[in-house]
Amino acid sequence: MHTTLQPTGPSRPSASEANEAIRHLVETRVDDEWPSAAYEFLLEEWAVASRAEVSGAP
């Protein structure tokens, strides 16, 4: 079972936190099983955080 970064409350992870979670997910996958749902979730979190950091929005 994989643990993923779950936002608590209104805050979301930063792009670097989401990126690190994606790396961890990829590096710790078991039996070459690709956790697509977790990856898609983290990828979306990374994209949202990246857009917010580029635009300067909190």
Question: How would you explain this protein's 3D organization?
Answer:
The protein is mostly helical. The chain has one domain (15-55). It is 57% helix and 0% strand. The protein contains 2 helices and no strands. It has helices at residues 15-27, 36-55. It is elongated. It starts with 14 loop residues before the first helix and ends with a helix.
Averaged pLDDT: 80
The count of domains is 1
Number of helices: 2
Number of strands: 0
Distance between the terminal alpha carbons, to the nearest Å?
A: 32 Å
Low-confidence stretches: none
Which class do the helix and strand fractions yield?
mainly alpha
Overall outline? elongated
Order of helices and strands, N to C? HH
The major pleated sheet works out as:
none
Estimate the strand proportion.
Answer: under 5%
| Rg from alpha-carbon coordinates | 12 Å
Report helical residue fraction.
Answer: 55-70%
